[in-house]
Amino acid sequence: MATDLLNISSDARNTLLVVTTLIVAVTFQAALNPPGGVWQDDRYDPEQNCKVVPGNLNKCTRLAQAGSSVLHTRSEGRYGTFIFVNTLAFSAATSTIFFLLEGSPFQTETLISIYCMNFAYAASVGAVQPQTATTWTLLFVALFSPYIFRLFSHIIKSHKVAREQDVPQGPPVFQRGAC
Question: What Gene Ontology terms describe what this protein does at the molecular function level (predicted)?
């Protein structure tokens, strides 16, 4: 088994790439089709006797919009939890893929692809979630957290290595008669 600079065997790297790719696919699909699905048509307050005539809807209260998440309509808290955890899993998996392919000949293309996937994920979630500040905040915190954690981890590691190189090894040695 060949190893690289990160001490990961090629078999382990390949296994991790397969697993993280599956996680990306499953979480992306879950974002497009959240639990409970999406509303197929607009829902209006039944007590207002609204008819599906564009000119008549001005006085009607819309309860749910076609294409939006049913789960969010039924339980905002559960939807928020779902979207946060799903997005965190998606982002951690894309971050891992980038980490595993770091140093490969196609590193730039991989980075572009991963960022495009992240933006496509955010756009997809934005299409099915209600447009509230809370849901967008949860989405972006979860989306960027793995990248921020990896950045801080890299910075801490760099400082630790720099400090270890600056620390003298043992007491200073004095030579007699050097002056």
Answer: DNA binding
Token couple for 177: 């008669």
Return the CA Rg of the chain: 26
Distance CA 44, CA 24 (A): 36
Could you tell me the sign of the dihedral formed by the alpha carbons of 25, 26, 29, 30, in that order? negative
Which helix (H) or strand (E) covers residue 92, if one does?
helix 76-100
Give the tens place of pLDDT for each residue, 34-65: 888 777 777 666 666 666 555 555 567 667 66
DSSP string for residues in 106-175 = THHHHHHHHHHHHHHHHHHHHHHS---HHHHHHHHHHHHHHHHHHHHHHHHHHHHHHHHHHS-SSSPP--
DSSP-assigned beta bridge partners for residue 34? none
Query: What are the angstrom distances between the C-alpha of 51 and each of 29, 62, 133?
Result: 34, 12, 31
Higher pLDDT, 18 or 98: 18
